[in-house]
Amino acid sequence: MRILGTGVDIVENSRIKKSILNKSFLYRVFSNKEILISKNIKNKSSYFAKRFAAKEAFAKSIGTGFRNDFNFKDISIINDKLGKPSFFISKKIKNMIKKKFKINSFNFFLSISDEKKYSIAFVILQKK
Fold first, then answer.
1. How far is 23 from 30, CA to CA, in rounded Å?
2. How many Cβ atoms are within 10 Å of 116's Cβ, its own excluded?
3. Domain locations in the chain as residue ranges
4. Beta strands 85-88 and 106-114: pairing type?
5. Parallel, antiparallel, or unpaired for β 85-88 and 118-127?
């Protein structure tokens, strides 16, 4: 097992709080599932800020940023029954990683956290 990439991002929660009032931003950045789950979340700005940071950290971990038909909606953050966050890895992402790193088997590790003013995410991409 080898680490292929890491990414970290921090975001000011107030920035996301303002941005999510704009429906086009919301639907351009977040998956339908993320938006649906948010309806049951009390602190929406924190919920979306953590996911925004995670998506940015993800793009940094693979070393591409958002370009060449790769965008925020391609990444979706899910939580297991205990609340542990992870990424839903789409076929598009699998193909990107296979092409860039010449591998077939990999893992992503995600840690997200927030405080009153900031949310942060850290991502590790590892070859299995």
1. 10
2. 7
3. 2-127
4. unpaired
5. unpaired
Give CA–CA dist 50/112, Å, rounded. Answer: 6
**Has domain 2-127 been given CATH number 3.90.470.20?**
yes
Q: How far is it, in rounded angstroms, from Cα 1 to Cα 87? A: 19
What string of DSSP letters covers 69-113? Answer: T--GGG-EEEE-TT--EEEE--HHHHHHHHHHH--S-EEEEEEEE
What pLDDT is attached to residue 1? 80
pLDDT, block means (10 residues), the chain with 128 residues: 95 97 95 94 95 96 86 92 92 91 94 96 96
The structure tokens 């591998």 sit at 103
